[in-house]
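FORM 7B: Structural annotation worksheet

SECTION A. Query
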Amino acid sequence: MGRTQVIVGATVAGLVVLTLFLFLDSLNFAGTAQIVGYQRTADPRRIVVIVALARLDDVAERQIQEDASTVRITVRKRTTSGTAQADLILFPVTLTLREALRDRAVLDDKGAPVADRGVYEAPQPTTR
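SECTION B. Predicted structure
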């Protein structure tokens, strides 16, 4: 085996390891985001769930389990490494349900009721 083949082989192996590391790191969930409420929208199948995230968190995954009387929601978060102020930001997450919400109870991942915060109104730009 020549020197060039060894270098190419080592480079390919390094890229495979790096790709695998980045893929596994992207699956690394930091936990479940705290759901502080939900809001209804004009579409009866859509709701906006309000979650509390830290500055270095982002939404990684959403899960919805529906039955005739409840909608159970789990929002998983991922945390990037670094330092930031230790405060929470309320973040809207839009979810589409299989069936209209109607009078079904909305529950978090532990089965606790989520507060109904009324009708969602998108922020309007301010004019000067």
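SECTION C. Observations
The chain has one helix and eight strands. The longest strand covers residues 57-66.

SECTION D. Sign-off
Analyst initials: ____
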